[in-house]
Amino acid sequence: MHRLLVGTATLGAVLLAAAPADARPASKGFFSEAGLGVTGLLPPHQGAVKAGPTVDLQLGYDLFSWLSLSVHVAASSHEATVPPPPEGEWLQLYRADAGGRMGFRIDSVALFAEGGLGAAYISSNLLGKVGITDPGERFGVAFRAGGGLEYQVLNRHYAFGVAGDWLLVPDFDALSAIQARVFLRYTY
């Protein structure tokens, strides 16, 4: 009788361990996301500005498990490589937009596409030397589109991810850039 009880308990433990685990429930609601990365201009303007470090922040709300709306701000710093003078100058590109993210989750991994419409501000008139900006031009309309991959850790509020975005500022001689970043997301 004792062996039958031990055998039954062992078999029960093995079956429980082999049963599929429930998918990790992701939090939904308000979220914040902070990222670090690099931004580089695309041709034909690539030669005027070196790739530089980027920081970004997103604040938003998950309407559904597959759709989020957010406000996104980013800033990148770049060394200008325009013909001298001056030499060794840096400029900053600031961006802000309102947008959304659509995606789907497979257990702890989510794939998403995102985009936004907003504004860009450039901190210097250095790019006027090569025709990217007009004299006195600092502001422009900005479009952002991209996607990425997110991994939800065991704590359902936190996720890490990688993302890439394409940026277009038509007012700055159709300046386009790409940004790659890693991020930490917290859902409240």
Describe this structure in words.
The protein has 188 residues and is mostly beta strands. Helix content is 9%, strand content 57%. It is built from one helix and eight strands, in the order αββββββββ. It has one helix spanning 2-18, and strands at 30-41, 52-64, 67-79, 90-106, 109-122, 139-152, 158-169, 175-187.
Q: Largest sheet at a glance?
A: 8 strands, antiparallel, barrel
Strand order of the largest sheet: 1-2-3-4-5-6-7-8
The outline comes out as: elongated
The strand count comes to 8
Instruction: Determine the number of helices (DSSP H or I, runs of at least 4 residues).
Output: 1
Q: Mean of residue pLDDT?
A: 88
**Helix-residue proportion:** under 10%
Which structural class matches the secondary elements? mainly beta
- Unreliable spans are 18-22
Secondary-structure map:
Elements: H1 2-18, E1 30-41, E2 52-64, E3 67-79, E4 90-106, E5 109-122, E6 139-152, E7 158-169, E8 175-187
Antiparallel strand pairs: 1-2, 1-8, 2-3, 3-4, 4-5, 5-6, 6-7, 7-8
Quick structural overview:
The chain is mostly beta strands and 188 residues long. The protein has one helix and eight strands.
Descriptive key words:
mainly beta, 188 residues
